[in-house]
Amino acid sequence: MALKNLLKKNKSSAVYLLILGGLALTMSSIMTFFAATQEAFIHAFRWEQWTLFFCLTSLTMAVGLTPTTFIALLTGYFLSWAALPPLVISYCIASALGYYAANWVDKGAFLQSISETKGVAGILKNIKKSEFKLVFFSRLSPILPFAVTNILLALAKVKHKSYYLGSLTGMLPRTTLSVYIGSTIATFSDIEQQDTDITSRLIWLSLITISSAGILRIFVKAFKSEN
C-alpha cells in the first residue's frame, strides 16, 4: 500500500524513469546499425566532428538515449585511448544535465511523499549518511543504467559534491575498461557481443560484484539503523 501511494504521488517521475529505461536499448541498436553501415565515414571524422559527437552524446546519455557503456565501446573502437579524456568530460556533463532534468521533472514531490510515508523517510535519511559511497558504487556498476541512476540520485537530493565526486571516481574504472575493450575489438559487428579476453571479463565481473556488494551493504546498514 505504501509503495502504491508513493507511485501515485510521483507519477511524472515514475513515467520519466520508465521511458528512459526503455529508450537506451532501442537507440543503441539504431546507433550500432548506423555505425556498422557507415564505418568508413566515421573513421574519416576530423576533430571538429568528434567534438560535436561528444557534445551530442552528453545530451543523449543524460536522457538515456544512448547507454554510456556502448558509447565507451564505440569511441574506444574508433579512437582507442584518445577517446578517454573527452569521454570523461562528456560523462560529467551528462551527469549534471541528468541531475537537473530529474529535479525539474520531480519538483521536490518525491522527497515530500517520502516524508509522508511511515518508516521510509528514516531509511532514506540513513542512506544519505553514505551518499558518496552510494553514488560511487552506483557509477561503478556496469549494469545499472546511467540515466536511471541520475534520476534516483537526484530524487534523493544527494549533495552536489557527493554526486559529482562519486560520479567521476565511480565511472573511471568501468569507462577505462570499456574503452580498452572497444580498442581491442577486431570488427565493429563484435561490439554488441563484446568479445573480450578472460582478464577483461574477470575485471567486468569484479566491478559488478564490488558495486552490488557496496550498494547492498549501504541499504542493509540503513535498514538496521532504522530498526
Number of strands: 0
Spatial extent as radius of gyration: 19 Å
How do the helices and strands follow one another from N- to C-terminus?
A: HHHHHHHHHHHH
Beta-strand content bin: under 5%
How far apart the termini lie comes to: 20 Å
Please give the largest β-sheet: none
Anisotropy-based shape: globular
**Helix coverage percent of residues?**
over 70%
Low-confidence runs = none
Structural class: mainly alpha
Described by its quaternary structure, the protein is: single chain
Nearest-integer average pLDDT: 79
Number of helix segments?
A: 12
Summarize the structure.
It contains twelve helices and no strands.
Overview of the molecule:
This protein has 227 residues and is an all-alpha fold. The chain is 80% helix and 0% strand. It has helices at residues 2-9, 11-37, 39-43, 47-62, 68-79, 84-106, 109-115, 120-128, 131-140, 146-155, 160-184, 198-226. Helix 5 packs across helix 11. It starts with a helix and ends with a helix.
